[in-house]
Amino acid sequence: MPLGDEVADRLLADVDPERRTECWWFVLETGALIEGDRGGGVALLSHLGLTRAIGWFLSRSTMSRWIDRLDAWLAGKRSWLSRFVPDGPAPRRYP
Predict the structure, then answer these.
(1) 60-94 burial, b if ≥16 CB within 10 A, otherwise e?
(2) What's the predicted TM-score (pTM) here?
């Protein structure tokens, strides 16, 4: 969801406004926050049905930092990757 969304403001209330834009954030059902560049990728994989086993394996190995590096590299390729994503609003399927 966009950072300007009122729900995002509520979920990220404990994060300094300057830090909110440094990376993406994964919010657990409990309200716990995980920074996208500090384990968020593995946490996300662990919570998605099709990638749960991969996330479980990565969370128990030392590969989390490699996933974070892959995420940083992909973020640098965002303009190139965006041509594969259709224009328009993203679906809103969070609770």
Answers:
(1) eeeebeebbeebeeeeeeeeeeeeeeeeeeeeeee
(2) 0.67
* End-to-end Cα spacing for the chain: 12
Three-state DSSP string of 8-44: HHHHCCCCCHHHHCCCCEEECCCCCEEEHHHHHHHHH
C-beta of residue 5 within 8 angstroms of C-beta of residue 14: no
What is the per-residue pLDDT across 53-88, written as a single tens digit (0 to 9) for each?
988 898 888 888 888 888 888 888 888 888 887 777
